[in-house]
Amino acid sequence: MLFDLYLSLADREWAWALLLGVAADVLLGEPRRWHPLVGFGRVAAGVEARLNRARRWQGVLAVGLMLALPLALLSLLRSRLPGGQWLVDGVLLYFALGARSLHEHVRPVGQALQAGDLAAARAAVQRVVSRDCGSLDAAGVAGAAVESTLENGNDAVFGTLFWFAVGGGAGALLYRLANTLDAMWGYRTERLRAFGWAAARLDDGLNWLPARLTALSYAGLGYTKLALWCWRHQAPRWDSPNAGPVMAAGAGALGLKLGGPASYHGRVEQRPVLGAGRLPAAGDIGRALALVASVLLLWLVVLTVLHAGLTR
């Protein structure tokens, strides 16, 4: 009965595509082999090696090329499958989502901490963050895992769902491709500072509204008043215009203190403090993952209702 109600609320093809993408991600996780984003990343590395001559226009050209070809191929595929476009959209959403992958990468950190194995916890969290984790204490490891969970909740889950709602499979694809290019090229190193500018700005633009909707969702399902205070007063001090609201609101929603100094490639960065309350512990990693899962359910309901209202 609930399933029939769901299909009656939303356009059936859109509803089937959404269900297929989310269910496949939750049940199957990321493909172990031949993941399209992994292949895209390898191509991006080759393009950067050939085109990067420390000029912004070269980065703009590279981003255009890297996005135009996959979207052109998608358009051709959809034109050849006029009755199966919902299936294409659902598969694209599956490839773009990373909800189960986020759990699979972060949960071992909490399990190692709860078992008292700090070395294993450091190794596990090093696989999901770019900071130096070799000297972190238990609170530092837990904090890094919680920060990664909150930020990647937006990047790998909610930003993807937002752009799927806006543009179907093509929207989800465009968002994750831009996100991948930013992750590879958007660093302020001497090599990538100019070349990666376009990828970073595009990712900032695509993430602006989803990040704030994610922050609002975190706040609504946690300590709301504290989360909104942290968002307002702490997020503007964070380097990233989108990660700041997400992580500040998420930290406040959980009642935790995140941020602070962190070492990257041997250099310590004095990051602002986000959130308020106590330092994170092993059990807070599970709380952060539960928050992301709760927001995912909320978004599925809200997106379905909004889509129903807009398509009637």
TrEMBL record:
Subcellular location: Cell membrane
Superkingdom field: Bacteria
Transmembrane segments: 59-77, 156-178, 288-310
Pathway involvement of the protein, from the record: Cofactor biosynthesis; adenosylcobalamin biosynthesis
UniProt entry keywords in alphabetical sequence: Cell membrane, Cobalamin biosynthesis, Membrane, Transmembrane, Transmembrane helix
MF GO annotations: ABC-type vitamin B12 transporter activity; threonine-phosphate decarboxylase activity
Gene Ontology process terms (BP): cobalamin biosynthetic process
GO cellular component: plasma membrane
Membrane topology: Multi-pass membrane protein
Its job: Converts cobyric acid to cobinamide by the addition of aminopropanol on the F carboxylic group.
Family: Belongs to the CobD/CbiB family.
Protein name: Cobalamin biosynthesis protein CobD
Source lineage: Bacteria, Pseudomonadati, Pseudomonadota, Betaproteobacteria, Burkholderiales
